[in-house]
Design a protein that fits this description.
The N and C termini lie far apart (62 Å). The chain has a domain at 4-244: ATPase, nucleotide binding domain (Nucleotidyltransferase, domain 5). Strand 10 and strand 11 (197-198) form a beta hairpin. It is globular and about 60 Å long. By secondary structure, it is an alpha+beta fold. It has 16 helices and 23 strands. Helix 10 (310-318) packs antiparallel against helix 12 (373-399).
Length: 499
């Protein structure tokens, strides 16, 4: 039995590989950014081959860093950016078009058509989602109808579709395995989360041939091995697959109903485990499938998605040049008493839950002559906490449960000011684990359980340890006033494109 689990964490802006030992500790890690392309306003694309090569490169790098042999890797787990759509030739493996990223808005008009046709109730009831360009289905529809010859090739079974997990597994196995897992399938707007099968009515309306679609497997299941040539002649079992947010919930040991987590990445993603109960939201949230073995399905979660979180900090750095490094936001925020009434609503690609307004755009409110660049930085940082509160408020109403503790992870969770502000504005405890790379850890847990590396969930619970608990300190009056100002700003940022 190998001594390590290799976790491949394919994110929106970078690919990472992390090697975990039997105690769940990080032995080595490697990360590589890859380009994003913006050919038109609202369009976001990636090169599938660049995704693959960056992921393979960091996998090799982490093995070198750890000074181990591939033979010592017990199993491999994969977690990935969700909803991003890729279509490629079944024979040549060549993508027919760049990957259309989850942030892409080009299909907004088609989404409006579907709503006018009355599809929204059916979609919400059977997929747990809302009709939005965020999800994969309308991206597939766009490629099949805009890439010359694509629809004809798809009907002839010459093309394959996959989210990023499917693409990576197909490449890792040299085209031998075409699968996705329940968590990623549940984010396509094509998967029926009640029957656990691809929804034929939605496929028919979208004009998507079902033969393009991958087989759906459990998140914790040994599905096959990597091609021997990739890792020095050694085939490595692929036994964990999960969309990044469900993987993070699993990495937080969120196995039981009522546990909630927030991952601060490119976006902010909040999930609450609801167990076998499929809660249909009436407050703009999504119902999605969570991780597990095949015997455990179906298992559900409520989810709220904030499109722009860490991406707003990157915007401060790369577009406005107000900071040179993301961690500068901590010192700036701590050294300012307040934002002087400034609110930044980073709706650069519209607003997600609970608003679902594709026409909203980024705005800055409350500017006066006394406002400096540092106030804008602090207000941008605080926007992550405000957006998260909006989602959690909706989640509490849907689930009928008050959230006492929020588990946090992801890059921005290391920012102590943000975590304290999050606790204050929520009036709830915020717990940060020792290992904030819980997305990668979740994929490792899934692969390890499927292959006997770890015996059971009790063992996983022992692995997870707390780094810090943030408890609310803000006066109730201040909390209410600050949030009212935020809500005013959000409302004024909405329906911008229509106007």
């Amino acid at each position: 039995m190998g001594s390590y689990i290799l976790s491949l964490d394919q994110g929106t802006s970078s690919s990472r590989a992390i090697l975990f030992d039997i105690k769940g500790q990080i032995v080595a890690s490697s990360q590589k950014e890859f380009p994003q392309y913006y050919p038109q306003p609202g369009w976001v694309e990636q090169n599938p081959e660049e995704i693959w090569h960056s992921q393979l490169e960091v996998a090799h790098e982490v093995i070198r860093k750890a000074k181990i042999k591939p033979l010592e890797i017990h199993a491999l787990g994969i977690t990935n950016q969700r909803e991003t759509a890729i279509i490629w030739d079944k024979t040549t493996g060549e993508p027919i078009y760049p990957a259309i990223v989850w942030q892409d808005k080009r299909t907004s008009v088609f989404c409006d058509e579907l709503k006018k046709e009355g599809w929204a109730p059916y979609v919400h009831e059977n997929t747990g989602l809302v009709i939005d360009s965020y999800f994969s289905a309308t991206k597939i529809h766009w490629m099949l109808n805009h890439v010359p010859g694509a629809m004809d090739r798809a009907k002839k079974r010459q093309l394959l579709f996959g989210t990023v997990d499917t693409w990576l597994i197909w490449k890792l196995t040299n085209g031998a395995i075409h699968v996705t897992d329940f968590t990623n399938a549940s984010r396509t707007l094509l998967f029926n989360i009640k029957t656990l099968e691809w929804d034929l009515e939605l496929l028919a309306r979208m004009g998507i041939p079902d033969k393009m679609l991958p087989k759906v497997v459990a998140s914790s299941e040994n599905i096959g091995n990597t091609h021997p040539e990739l890792f020095g002649g050694i085939p490595i079992p692929i036994a964990g697959i999960a969309g990044d947010q469900q993987s993070a919930l699993y990495g937080q040991a969120g196995f039981e109903p009522g546990v909630a987590k927030n991952t601060y990445g490119t976006g902010c993603f909040i999930l609450m485990n609801t167990g076998t109960k499929k809660v249909t939201s009436t407050h703009g949230l999504l119902t999605t499938l969570t991780c597990g073995t095949r015997q455990e399905y179906p298992r559900y979660a409520l989810e709220g998605s904030v499109f722009i979180a860490g991406a707003a900090i990157k915007w401060l750095r790369d577009a406005l040049h107000l900071i040179k490094k993301a961690d500068e936001t901590l010192e700036i925020a701590e050294n300012l008493k307040d934002t002087q009434g400034v609110y930044v609503v980073p709706a650069f690609t519209g607003l997600g839950a609970p608003y679902w307004d594709m026409t909203a755009r980024g705005t800055i409110f409350g500017l006066t002559l006394g406002v400096t660049d540092k106030h804008i930085v602090k207000a941008t940082l605080e926007s992550l906490a405000y957006q998260s509160k909006d989602v959690l408020d909706a989640m509490e109403k849907d689930a009928g449960v008050a959230i006492k503790v929020l588990n946090v992870d992801g890059g921005a969770s290391t920012n102590n000011y943000l975590m304290q502000f999050q606790s204050d504005i929520l009036n709830a405890q915020v717990d940060r684990p020792e290992i904030v790379e819980t997305t990668a850890l979740g994929a490792a847990f899934l692969a390890g359980l499927a292959t006997g590396f770890w015996k059971n969930k009790d063992e996983l619970n022992q692995i997870r340890k707390l780094n810090h608990s943030f408890k609310p300190k803000m006066a109730e009056e201040s909390r209410i006033l600050l949030h009212e100002g935020w809500q005013k700003a959000v409302n004024r940022s909405m329906y911008w494109e229509d106007e």
